[in-house]
Each structure stands twice: as C-alpha cells, then as structure tokens.
Amino acid sequence: MPPSDADDGRCVVNDDGRRTVADLGRPTHPHMKVYTTDPPTPDRVKVGVAEYAVAEGESTLVTSGLGSCVGIALVDADAGVAGLAHAMLPSVGDREPAATDGGENRPVGKYVDTAVPGLLDEMADRGAVASRVEARLAGGSAMFDFSSSDSGVGERNVAAAEAALDDRDIPVVATDVGGDYGRSLTLDATTGALSVRRAHGDDRTI
Amino acid sequence: MNLDVESLRTFSNLAQSGAEEAADSLSMLTGFDSRVAVTKVEMSTRSDVEQEFRERDLVSVHIGFSGAIDGRTVLAFDRDRAVSLVDALVPGASDDPESDLATSGLKELGNIMLGGFIDGWADFLGEAIDITTPTYVELDADRSLVDVIDAGDDGTGDAPGSDIALGGDTSEAESSHVLAFQNHLETVDEEAGFYIYMLPTRASVGRIVDAAGDADDALPVETFTSFSQMITDGAGQASEDLTAMTGIDTDVDVSRLSFVPIEGVPMQLTDETRRGVVLEFTGTPSGYIAILFDPDSAESVADALMPGMDADPAMRKSAIQEIGNIVTSGFLDGWADSLETTIDISPPTYVDDIGSAIVDPLVAELAQTQEYAFLIDSAIATPDETFTCDIYALPDERELRTAFERLAPEPN
Q: Which of A102, A134, B142, B146 is the most exposed place for a label (fewest CB within 10 A)?
C-alpha cells in the first residue's frame, strides 16, 4: 500500500489553499455553512521537522531550527513553484529495517533520499519542470562533538542532498552549510531567494 | 495492567491519525489549512496537564466518549485567536468575540474537530465510539482538571474523572498519573493553534494494549509511573541544588515523561534563542541532556552566581556551564541510584543558539537507531520569575527499556 497523504509527513497546500477531504457525514451546526469560495492562500507556510511543502505565487515557505538537519530549497521561477524540505538523516538506508520502524508510514520528508524525489514530484504536479529547477541548501552544521558518534550527520546530510540533486541534474546554485550554529530559513516562492537567519549575526540571503 | 513500547507506538499512531482527521475537518469547514505539529503520549500527572492549560491561558471544549473506549477529550485553544476561524461555521461570530454566538461557534468547532479525532480511533478499533454534546469551559486558577472533566460530564451519573488514571491506586488526585494524548495543531500560517487532549479511562487503555501490544515486551504500568516519579525526584534534587548554588528559591514547575515520534522533539522548542549547556550521558541508559535558559534567565542566573561582580562574557559563559553541571548531576544522580547503575556525564558544551536547533542534532543522532523517543522535560522556576531553567533529556530508547526492566516489580 502506498503511503497516503495523511500519514507521510507531507504538508501540501493545494491550488485553492486547502486540502481536499471526504465529506465528514456528521451532523452540522444549524448555523454552519461549508466554505464554498476560495479562502485566501496562506502567504506563509510552515514546514516542520521531517516534512516538506510546496507553495506557489506570492508565498513564503519557512522552517526553523536546522542544526544537523539540512534544508533543501527548490524553485522553478518560471512556473512560480517552490518547495522546501527539512530533512533529518541522509537516507532511509541508514536505518536497520525493523518491524516496528513505521514501515510505509515512515515520513518521506525525514530522509534526504526520499524528500528530494517527493518534493520534485509534488512540484511537478503543480506545474514545475525539473530541467528549470534550481536548488539552494542550508543547514547541516556540526554543533556538538559526541563521543558516542563517529560521524557528522550534518555533513552527510549535505553530501546526500548534493548527490540526490546531481542524480537528477538539478544545479545547486547556492549553499550556506556547515559551521557550528543553527539556522532558520525563509524561502520566497516567487524568486527562490533563501533567507538564512542565525541566533547571532546578520541574516544572509542566498 | 501492562504497557509495552509497541502499544505506545500504536497509541502514538492513533493519536496522530485522529489529529490529522481533526485538522482535515478544521480545514474543510473553515477553509483554513492546518497541520498537526506535535503528537505526544504523555505519562504525566494530572496537575502537569492542568499546568499546561494555565501556562498557555487556554479555554477549552470538552466532549465525552464511550463505546469501544471510554473517556474524555478536550480541545484547548486561545479564544481570541480561535474565534476568528468560526465565522465560516457561524457567520458574524467574530464580530463580537465574547458573544454567546461566538461561544456556540467554538463549541461547534470542538464538536467537529474532536468528532474527527475520535473517528480515527474508532476506525482502528473497528467499533463505534459515541460522543457526548460539547461543553465549553474556561479553566481558571481555582479549578482542577477533575472539576473541568466533571463539568463536562453529560450527567449520566458516572464519574469519569475518578478512573482516568494510570496509577489508579493512589488517592492523591493531584499526583495521580494520567496517560494523556496530546496533539498540537496549528493553521499553516500559525495564526491559530489548538491542543487536543484525550484522557481515556484505565480500562480503555488496557483494551488497546490488549489489542495492539506485545505481551513479551510488556511491563507493568507501575514501571512507567516509577520512572516518572524518578524524573520528578531528579528535578526536585536539581531544583534544590540550583537553590543552594544561587541562593534563590526554586520550584519544579513541570516534570513530564512522554513518548513522541522522534521528529516531534525539536518542535517542543521554538526558534527563540536559548543559552545553556548540552551534555552526553553514558550508562544504562545513555542519552543526551540539554539545560536551557532564555537569555534573560541566563543573565539572572549568572548574576546570582557572581553577585556584585562586573563579569565579562567569558565568566558568564563559565557560570552557565557550572550551573549546567550542577543541574545535570542533580537530575541524573537519582537515576543511577534507583537503577543501581553508574551513569557517566560528559563535560558540558556551551550553547547560545536557536532553541529548536540546539535539540535538533541530539535528535538526529538518536534517529539513526530509533523512530520514537522517550522525551523527559522538566522546568525549574523561581516563584518571583527571576529565571526559568528548562531540562530536556533524551535517553536511548532501547537502553531505557533495559532500565525499565530493572525498575519493574518481580513477576508474580
């Protein structure tokens, strides 16, 4: 069974700014009306940890608190479609398979190697063309040096993102990665400009 | 009653699907897209749940449920923000946010969202669950959650508050343990947020454990409550040590054990700056601990440690590190005693960064071997609000299970 929208960790805003859901079939309030006109498209869409989201037009996608996680920002400026992922680990393959690991319910946005194709598919559904997509990467820092860990998760996340994008011939036009500090991101869906905020120091736009 | 990690995963999935149903209902009926930000299974005391309501100054809509499982469910929210969403349900309601019409819209919102939430559970159990009519409640400082739950009772005469308890044997309602399911939903523009709490009866928890659990892995539920008590004791010791060191009275505000999908952990913090220390502990269990202060609290703590001194930033940093050491020792030493083991603590790494980003690398390390985390979070505060110290501990899940086994009473 393929993962459904409800459980794969995605948060996607449709053309009309809301999700399509089945009729609840529940009695409603006598004064209640079901929304029939298009509500305003949210101009600020939050992307949680291990999630990705796609937006178009005059919107921004935001994600906060990237430490070793990597933020993958993709944009097709011609189509005005952008996507942002907040991935935690390089690959599903890093996990030993286990009956209790969530199986197909594992969030697609959690791993770089599933988030990149997932994000691209979602953008293509909204009119983006892969050959026009440009990528920006931010995050993947090394804030701590843990004795129990032999690996820089942050560095591996960035390398995995570069590899996944390279496989699909998507150019990485700018990066703000590494270091020993956290980052929060704001992606302008129209221009693809990625603004990187730190706790201390000036914001940087790449 | 026994409880096992597989059951906790099931509970977490159920609460997540229920919350997604609720978010979909909200989106469809109001036109505002919403998302589930956090899903937690809390093994907390009733007073901790109440504390959360008060901290956030929330009002709530309550609905009882019965059938396949029994209990109470609560939609808690900031009234001013939520009322802007109900125009779609009750046109004109937000023109007068304090009106009865607005309250009626909020009750309807609760009905729809909690109805969706319960539907998710009924689907899993394959049995019908009936819900009562919603009750709107403002939780003021003088009311306990029990009062609120009783106020939300539909008058059938049963007393749902009395058996919604994990440690059902304790007569102290304030300290009795609740298995509570907490979801945080927010509109994607973050303008409005909702908390869904579900408090099933002890028998209902048992029913789901029987349906989903792994008997070989099950531990008596008292094991979890003993561990929870150990955390509370650790926070108490840390509070005493902090008071001894700073000369300022402190209390344990919150002390909670919860079970969460691991990616949900960083979302317990915001992107506001936090200062403090991160340490690694090794033993049974191993894990990570972060002792964090907001910037004002960090300044107050450093001042308290170096009264009257014109301390430079390096001295302040070292004062915070020292505080971190003391709090960590206080917090963890009791664990080692209770678990009859040794827990080694690494030197502290000083942090001054975006709050959620500080926790993110700890979570990423653990996420390589586990999908869910036992999150321990405590807050120590001074009554006069001079400072608050937040403690987050993330033990390795498998090692914590081994530790649980040591805490478990001998089988009969």
A: B142
Distance to chain B for A180, nearest Cα, Å? 10
Cα A139 to Cα A90: distance, rounded to the nearest angstrom: 13
* A90-146 tens-digit pLDDT: 987 655 544 444 444 457 889 999 999 999 999 999 999 999 999 999 999 999 988
Q: Do residues B225 and B43 touch, judged by C-beta distance below 8 A?
A: yes
Give me the torsion for CA of B238, B244, B248, B249, rounded to 10°: 60
Among all residues of chain A, which has the CA nearest to that of B369? A95
What global pTM score does this model have?
0.82
Residue with tokens 């096992």: B4
Q: A28 in contact with B at a CB cutoff of 8 Å?
A: yes
Residue whose token pair is 């099933």:
B200
B156-195 residues touching A, CB cutoff 8 A:
186-190
In this structure, are strands B177-187 and B34-45 parallel, antiparallel, or unpaired?
Answer: antiparallel
Q: CB–CB of B33 and A65 under 8 A?
A: no
Average pLDDT of chain A is 79
C-alpha dihedral (B31, B97, B144, B297), degrees to nearest 10 = 80
Closest CB to B89 among A32, A68, A88:
A32
Residue matched to tokens 């150019």: A171
User: Dihedral, CA atoms, B146, B150, B152, B155, nearest 10 degrees?
Assistant: 170
Cis peptide before B220 (omega within 30 of 0): no
- Reported as type and span, the H/E element at residue A178 is none
Q: At what angle do helices B202-212 and B5-30 cross, to 10 degrees?
A: 110
Q: Are strands B251-261 and B349-354 parallel, antiparallel or unpaired?
A: unpaired
Reported as type and span, the H/E element at residue B269 is: none
Burial of B302 (0-12, 13-18, 19+ CB in 10 A): buried
